TrEMBL record:
InterPro entries according to UniProt: Carboh/pur_kinase_PfkB_CS, PfkB_dom, Ribokinase-like
Keyword Transferase: yes
Originating species: Streptomyces gulbargensis
Protein name (database record): Adenosine kinase
Name of one Pfam family that matches: PfkB
GO molecular function per UniProt: kinase activity
Residue ranges of domain Carbohydrate kinase PfkB in the record: 191-285
Keywords annotated in UniProt: Kinase, Transferase
C-alpha cells in the first residue's frame, strides 16, 4: 500500500512572541526600549519541523492540540497559507505559547507557558492510528499529549523520531520519547556528559541513530558504527537567529533517512538545513528547499568540507555544554 504521507508530525504547534533584546542575559532594569519591535507569530517546534519537511518535498501532515482562540487562529493560518495539512484537536487549556528573547548574535532564550496543558487533553488514539497508518514515518514532539501516542504509532508500524531539546539526561518526562524512538535528536546544552547520555539512549531504547547538536560546534552522531563528529556548516548569510535551527536539522536529517541515505549523509543534510535556519529572522518562517539543500551538500562534499568520517574513524568525545 502506498502511503498518503511521508511524515506525520505530532505536537509542537503554538505561538511565540519574539522580542529582540539588546543583549543576553538581559540586564536588570525597570524597562528596556526594544528597537526592532515585539511580534507574535505561529511557529513552534512541530510547526517548523513540518515546514522544513514540506519545503524538502516530503508529504507532511501535522497533528496537535490547539485552542479555539486567536492564537489557534494564527496556527491554523500558518499551515493554511503554506499548504501544510493540519489537524487541530481542541485544547481546553488553549494554544501553546512562549516568549523568545533574541540577542544581537542570534542566541535565544525561550520562556514556555506551562499552564497551557490540561490533564484531560489527549490526541485521540483512533485519529493518531488512522493518520499513522497512512504515513511512512512519525516525528513526535515532547509536548503535552504526545507520549500516550507512542504505543499507537508503534502498533501502526511506522518508524519514529523525536527531539528531546535541552534534556538534562535525567528528567523522566523525556524518557518515553528517548527510549521509544528510532531516531533521537537532543541538544548538548544541558548535558553534562553528552556521550554517556547518547549511549544510554541506544542501550535502553530502540534508537538506530542518536544526534546531539552543539550549535556552532556542530553535532555528534551515534550509530552502531560508533560516535562521529558532524562539523558545523557555515551559513550562507549573517546569523540573525538560532530559533528553529534544531527543527531544521531534524527535517534535513529525516529527509536524508527517508531518501535512503546513510546516517553521515543524513547528518550533513541536517547541518546544511540548520545553518540556513540561522539566517532567517525569528519573525519569519522559511526553510531551505530540496534544490538548495542538495546543491549545498554537493558543494561541501566536493570541497571535502562535509566532515564525513573516514572508514575506521576512532572514538570522538563531544564537549560538555
Amino acid at each position: 500500500m502506498n502511503a498518503t504521507y511521508d511524515v506525520l508530525v505530532l505536537g509542537g504547534a503554538g505561538v511565540d512572541t519574539i522580542v529582540y533584546v539588546p543583549e543576553l542575559p538581559l540586564p536588570w532594569a525597570d524597562s528596556h526600549l526594544v528597537e526592532r519591535g515585539i511580534e507574535a507569530r505561529a511557529g513552534q517546534t512541530g510547526d517548523f519541523v513540518a515546514l522544513g519537511l514540506s519545503a524538502l518535498g516530503l508529504r507532511t501532515h501535522h497533528l496537535d492540540l490547539v485552542g479555539d482562540d486567536p492564537f489557534g487562529d494564527l496556527v491554523r493560518a500558518f499551515h493554511r497559507d503554506r499548504g501544510l495539512p493540519f489537524t487541530g484537536v481542541p485544547a481546553t487549556a488553549g494554544t501553546k505559547r512562549a516568549v523568545n528573547l533574541v540577542g544581537p548574535d542570534g542566541r535565544r532564550l525561550s520562556l514556555y507557558d506551562g499552564s497551557r496543558a490540561a490533564a484531560e487533553d489527549r490526541l485521540p488514539a483512533g485519529l493518531v492510528g488512522s493518520l499513522a497508518s497512512a504515513s511512512r514515518h512519525a516525528h513526535v514532539s515532547i509536548t503535552h499529549g504526545c507520549a500516550e501516542a507512542l504505543p499507537v504509532l508503534r502498533a501502526a508500524g511506522v518508524t519514529i523520531s523525536t527531539d528531546l531539546h535541552d534534556w538534562d539526561g535525567e528528567n523522566p518526562h523525556h524518557e518515553p520519547f528517548a527510549y521509544g524512538a528510532d531516531v533521537v535528536f537532543v541538544s548538548c546544552a544541558a548535558l553534562g556528559d553528552p556521550e554517556r547520555t547518547m549511549r544510554r539512549v541506544m542501550e535502553r531504547g530502540r534508537a538506530e541513530a542518536v544526534v546531539a547538536t552543539a550549535g556552532a560546534e556542530g553535532a555528534y552522531l551515534l550509530t552502531a558504527e560508533g560516535l562521529t563528529r558532524v562539523p558545523a556548516v557555515a551559513p550562507a548569510g549573517p546569523v540573525v537567529d538560532s530559533n528553529g535551527a534544531g527543527d531544521a536539522f531534524a527535517a534535513g536529517f529525516l529527509f536524508g533517512r527517508l531518501s535512503g541515505e546513510d546516517p553521515p549523509r543524513c547528518a550533513l543534510y541536517g547541518a546544511v538545513a540548520g545553518a540556513y535556519a540561522c539566517t532567517v529572522p525569528a519573525t519569519r518562517a522559511a526553510a531551505i528547499d530540496r534544490a538548495g539543500l542538495l546543491r549545498e551538500a554537493a558543494r561541501l562534499t566536493a570541497s571535502g568540507a562535509d566532515g564525513a568520517p573516514a572508514p575506521g574513524a576512532g572514538r570522538v568525545s563531544p564537549p560538555g555544554p
